Amino acid sequence: MPATTENNNQGSFLGRISIRRNQVLSMDGTHDQEMEDLELFQKHVGDRFSDLLSSTTDDPSSDALLSIAWLRKLLDEFLCCEAEFKAVVMMGREPSQIAKPPLDKLLPELLDRLVKSLDICNAVALGIDALKNIQRLAEVAVAALDQAPIGEGQVRRAKKALSSLVTTMVQEDKDPSKGTERTRSFGKRSSNTTNQAKSAFRSLSWTMAKNWSSAKQIHAMSSNLNAPRGAESSGLAQPVYIMSTVLVFVMWTLVAAVPCQDRNGLGTHVGLPRQLSWAHPMIGLQEKIAEEWKKKEKKGCVGVLEEMQRLDKLGQSLIEFADSFQFPAETERLEEVKAQVEELGDICRKMDEGLEPLQQQIREVFHRAVRTRTEFLLVLDQAGKLAAPST
Amino acid sequence: MENNLAENSGNVAAYDTGHTPHSPKPEPTDPKPDGGGTAEGEPSPPPSETLHEGDQANQEKKNETVKESPPPNHEKLAEDIDQLFLTLREDNDKSKGNAEKLEIPRFVERYLHMVEEKIIKYDSGEGKAKWGEVEEEDSWLLENADRITKLMKLLTNHHCEIEEERRNSLVNRTGSIQQRVMSYLEEDFRIIMEESRIIPTELDPGGNNNNADPKGKHVASSEKQEDVQDPDREQTESQPSFPGYPEEAIASLRKIATEMLSGGYESECCQVYIISRRNVFEEILQKLGLERISIDEMVQKVPWETLARDMIPAWINTFKECAAVFFPGERKLAEAIFADNPSVSEGLFSSLSRGVVIQLLNFAEGAAMTKRAGEKLFKLLDMYETLRDVIPKLDGMFPEESVEELKTEMTLAKSRLGESAIAIFCDLENSIKSETAKTAVPGGAVHPLTRYIMNYLAIAGDYKETLEQVFREHSKIERPDSTGMPRQENGASASDKEAASPFSTQAMRVMDLLDASLEGKARLYKEVALSNFFMMNNGRYILQKIKSSSEMSQVMGDNWCRKKSSELRTYHKNYQRETWNRVLASLNHEGLTVNGKVQKPVVKERFKSFNAMFDEIHRTQSTWVVKDEQLQSELRVSISTVVIPAYRAFLGRFAQILDPGRQTEKYVKYQPEDIETHIDELFEGKPHQGVGKRKT
Predict the structure, then answer these.
(1) Where is this region: Disordered (chain A) (predicted)?
(2) With respect to CATH, is domain B195-427 assigned 1.20.1280.170?
(3) What is the pLDDT of residues B180-239, one digit of tens each?
(4) Which residues of chain B lie closer than 8 angstroms to A391, CB-CB?
(5) Is residue A166 located within the same domain as residue A225?
(6) Which residue of B has its CA nearest to A22?
(7) E strands, B69-134, where?
(8) Which domain holds residue A40?
(9) What is the ipTM, given to two decimal places?
(10) How far apart are CA B29 and CA B47, in angstroms?
(11) What is the pTM for the complete model shown?
């Protein structure tokens, strides 16, 4: 579902809500309308994520789970959820309505999660920078091997780039903020490339603050995240809880997919409510992603991003090819390599087309979070002012 | 086209010391000075195999003895190759698309062999000389990189007529040599990037502050003494010297980059460049004291004092330095090194600077998100001003490719800071409203709230221009329409003819609220006189603060000042009336004479009454407080001018009625001079003191 139609839908939805609320607010029928709005919001959230879930399974040509294109879709849906959320909870409402219990506690908690999500956005954006460097290495390999005949020089060039690529991915995955030491374990280097490799790994991207951990941040975001009970579950506490859950889930997914500083302990699930239907597609996605993550941890640290996994596989295989290469290469093997190089080129193209927009989207999420927080603070502020006895 | 470009760049980069194949001046070995000919692409007859084998044998022997300079036939081979390219190019020019018969002469293999041998020597134990140590070696590498690249292009050219097997073998060999040569160039490029930089200039881009962090500089420079010698001199000659590469280093980098790019090794070159420069920026930011900090930490943990004292000034400084020195310097560096490929240099610079800018902006966003508090306003405005001043300069600072995004990002961050500033300033209202203490300030003194608000506004005056701008540009953003509060402009500014600016409207509202709050506090006093005295005292303080800031008096306007002054006069009058009218009434001459005869008991009574009232006033009002000396003396004078003449007249007229001696002593407690002295003791905020005690 392209974002544009989403936006149209969303536009009319928002319009409806605000009009209705303006008409109805003063009358007593507010309650029913509100129930309807809340249900609609829940339904939409469920639909959005079930689209994301089905697009990963049904059609093999569509974007694979955790691919760059899929992440972009995920962020599109997130932005839509967020806009609807604001429409439901904030638009046309008296400030006092959202400043009373239980929102007086739940809303600040959500705002705190929004602040924490900003750092995640930044860390993910840095991870995308690192991916751009990885893309450049893959491009070198493609340029070198996409030749006929493939000569020794090209093979050496490709191997150098691919070794860097594979090492870098492990590096970025473990902890982009430190470590020249790790490169030493990749021994097969002639004396003159060692230095180069070392310096190349010093840091492929900017890093976050020392000791900052994406996994810890996710955990901090998901603590206190409890489904509203009893009477609360039918009121505004519900959308606030849904939004918090969506936020935490999306951030968790991003951190799992893109190289991020210190992801130790990310495997633990974010608690999602099994009893609530809107959460089911999200639970489905979470299980799939967690599975990938587990595989990754077992295999020894390769990114969960679909493109990274493929790069890793292709990289390993082509390095093997390079190691046994003798000029002229056997025709049979060349066919295989040609296919692999094509696939590599395909991934490079996807990265080239997708990483920049993804990074911009992340930035948009960042700005949106800042803005939403500001808007809510303003409303809470006004509620506070109204409540305070004025002189 | 591509060939031409490569050859031109080769011309600039590689042949500046040696032969120039394109040079118009005839070479002795040039077989075709007129450029014509049908020599079938072969500039010189291939030397016989035997001769060359002999040469090679010779060469190998020589290699064992003389390590440095290549034997003469190397030069010959290189010349032959250059000549080959020259001829091919000319042929190409002539026959346009019809260049079918390109043949690859046999000496190409011998040439490749020669280069291979050299590379093998590099690979062997002794390795290659460090760049810059042996000039001939450097230019050998560059020149042959160029030849190899051209050869590679020639061999993969479809017009080139050559049997498949030989072509494949030649392509493989040439490609292999090219890869090795490029690896060496890449390594040299990296080493020059990292080691020829002069560290001290980073800390001190303007060169004004030579004592900054001497330790850091010393350690850094002692590692590379040779490099530091020249550049140091250079630095003193031409000032802003970031990024601190000596001319020769930049020239070398440019030559290497040119060869790597024309050889198709752009990615490798860019990777080395960008990593090296990013590390430099990491160092710079660190040295400028810009700590990396997460937004979460900024908002939740770090005490504001730390932000205000260290981090924000470091941020402001870093931002300014980046805009003034580091970014322009960085751009120049990229342009100098990738002179032949503007798109590459722009891409590299954009990517680097974007990383730095976004990092800086994240800090600004974080600062704007910290919990609102009055004391934060001015730091946030400092940051706001920094961004505001840089934004208009962005167009010249960044390439088109990235300037729009950066402008948008900076403008957003600026808006956040502006909105925060507005919110904080508007919070003054709350701090006034929430000051609800029910105890009156002793002595009718200036209320702490008055002091706080007025001092705040006085500083705000220093930021008037910025605050005006902030209120103008950002007060409408971020207010969801439906929750917008009714914010009517009260009558306060209605009298001003010009439409008041949003900032002065807000300042006016703060003043009105303060006035209202003070009136409430004035009611806490039981005595009407003290109530008025309190209002006069605070009003005076307010007016003085406004008047002493030319900016704030502009903001408040003349009307406000006039209105305030007249209020003050009213309070003064009220005070005077409440306190002194009764006193003056006791000195009234009326009712003392009945039928022209002075009533002695009444006179006694009047004196007694005056003394009692005056004592009481002195006792209480010397504990009242006026810190403002001018106001204090004005008050005393205004009291004196009313009371003393009246007393003098009363005394002059009625004192004589009393019997001299004990009676006079009893009733005439004060001489006019005493009255003056006592009035001068009023409003000093002294603890209670009986007049009588003082007299004794």
Answers:
(1) 169-196
(2) yes
(3) 999 999 999 999 999 988 765 444 444 444 433 333 333 333 333 444 344 444 444 444
(4) 432-433, 436, 513, 516-517, 520
(5) no
(6) B482
(7) 102-103
(8) 35-56+64-86+98-125+212-299+352-385
(9) 0.87
(10) 14
(11) 0.81
